[in-house]
Amino acid sequence: MPNHGISEAVIKRLPRYYRYLNDLSEQGVERISSAELSKIIKFPGSLIRPALMHFGGFGRKGYGYNYRSLYEEIGKILGLDKAQTMVIVGAGRLGQALANYVRFEKRGFRVIGIFDSNPELIGSTVRQCTIQSASELTAFLDNNHVDIVTLAIPRKDAPDLARMVTEHGVQAIWNFTPVDLNLYLPENVVVENVHLSESLMKLSCDLQRIREKDS
Amino acid sequence: MPNHGISEAVIKRLPRYYRYLNDLSEQGVERISSAELSKIIKFPGSLIRPALMHFGGFGRKGYGYNYRSLYEEIGKILGLDKAQTMVIVGAGRLGQALANYVRFEKRGFRVIGIFDSNPELIGSTVRQCTIQSASELTAFLDNNHVDIVTLAIPRKDAPDLARMVTEHGVQAIWNFTPVDLNLYLPENVVVENVHLSESLMKLSCDLQRIREKDS
Fold it and tell me: B93 to chain A: which residues are within 8 Å by CB?
C-alpha cells in the first residue's frame, strides 16, 4: 500500500511524529488519547483522528490509542522496519561525526563504508569501518547493496560525485554540501539536504528580528 | 527598518537567496536579469521584481540588476554585516566538526568558546579555542558577549542547559539535539533546529516511495 493515501504534508511530518512516539515508548507510556497526541505533535485532534484511521482501527475513542501500532506503521512508511546500508563519502570531521552518530544505528541505518581522497585518512578506522580511497568507491558500489550515500565533501566535488554514485545505482543522497544536487541528478534519485550554513543564517536572521522587536 | 516589510515566506528563503547570490559573486558575475535571477532562485520573476523593489531601486528593467546591492541588503537582514560570537557546548565529534566549519567564519560567525563536561576533552584545543569545563560556562556568558549558543550535547541535558544559557542572556540557540527546546524557553529566544535523525528518516521515507513508484 504505497504511502497509505496520506497527504504530502503529513508525510513530511512523519519523522517528527515518529520521534515523539519513540519518546513515549521510551517513557513506558502505554496508551494515549488523540487529544494528548495532538498536544504532543501540535496538530489538531480533528485532523489527527482521520490520519490515525489511515493506519487501521487500532484505537477506540475515549479509551485512548495504543500508539504502538501507529508507531510501527509510521516506522514502515519511513522504511525503518528493515536495515538500510549507508556509505559516507568524506571522512573529515563532519563525515566522522556522522559515522559515529549512534542514533542512526538504532533506526537501522548501518554505515558499511567510508571513503576519502586524503591519503592521511585512508586506512584509519572510524566505528569499525576502515576509511577507503575514494578511487575504490565505484567498485564498492558495484559489489555491495548501498541504499544511501552521505556526501560530506567539498562543494566543488559534489555534483560529479553525486552523478557518479547514481550512475552506480544509488537512489538516495544525504547531502551536506551547499549545492542543490537535484539540478544534476535524474528524477528517480531523492536528495535530502542539510544546509548547515543556511540554517545558521536563518538563526541569525531570527535573532536580528527578535532584537528589533524587543528594542 | 525592521524586516523591510517582507513576508515571512520570503524571509525564510533569504539564506538560500544569499547563498545563490554569493555563488554569482564568486563567479564574478556583474549583473543579472530578474528572469535569470528567478531561474536561479526558482521563484517566478513576477514575484521577484516586487520583492527586489523592497530593497530600493537598484535595477533597471531590461538592463539587469546589479545584484550586489540586493546581496548586501539580504546580508544585513540576515545580520551578516556584523561579526557574531558563538559558543559551542559539547565538544564531541559533532561539536568539533562545527567548530572547524570554515564557511561560518566567512559569514562573520566567530567561535569564542567551546565547552564540555568530559575531563578527557577539557584543555585540548579546537581551532584556536581551548575546550573549557562546562562548569565555567555561566561565568563565561556573564563576562563575554555571546550571540549564539550551539548545543551539540546529549538530549537529556538539553532542556536544562538551554534554560540556563538563556537565563544568562543568550537569545539564539542552534540546536542539534533531538529535543523541541522551544517548549522550555521564553518567547524572546529563537531556536533553530538541525534534527539529523529526522532528516535521515525523511530521506529514507522518500527512498521507499520512489522505489514503490518505480516498481
Answer: 93, 96-97, 100
Q: What's the domain range around B119?
A: 84-198
* pLDDT tens sequence across A1-27: 344 456 777 788 889 888 888 888 888
Strand B129-133: give its sheet, edge to edge: B125-126, B129-133, B109-116, B84-89, B148-151, B172-175, B190-193
Give the minimum alpha-carbon distance from B149 to chain A in angstroms, rounded to a whole number: 11
Whole-structure pTM value = 0.86
Residue with cell 536579469: B33
DSSP H helix total and E strand total for chain A: 9, 9
Could you give the number of structural domains in chain B?
2
Cα(A110)–Cα(A145) distance, integer angstroms = 12
- Judge if B157 and B105 occupy the same domain: yes
Q: Are residues B34 and B120 in the same domain?
A: no
Residues A93 and A182 grouped into a single domain: yes
Which residue of B14, B98, B171 is in closest CB contact with A210?
B171
Q: Domain check: are B103 and B171 in the same one?
A: yes
What confidence tens digit (pLDDT) does each residue in A95-127 have?
999 998 877 888 899 999 999 999 999 999 998
Any idea what the CATH number is for the domain that residue B62 is in?
1.10.10.10
Give Cα A105 to chain centroid, integer Å.
12
A8-39: buried (b, 16+ CB within 10 Å) or exposed (e) per residue? eebbebbbbbbbbbbebeeeeeeebbbebbbe
- ipTM score here? 0.88
Cell of B65: 540588476
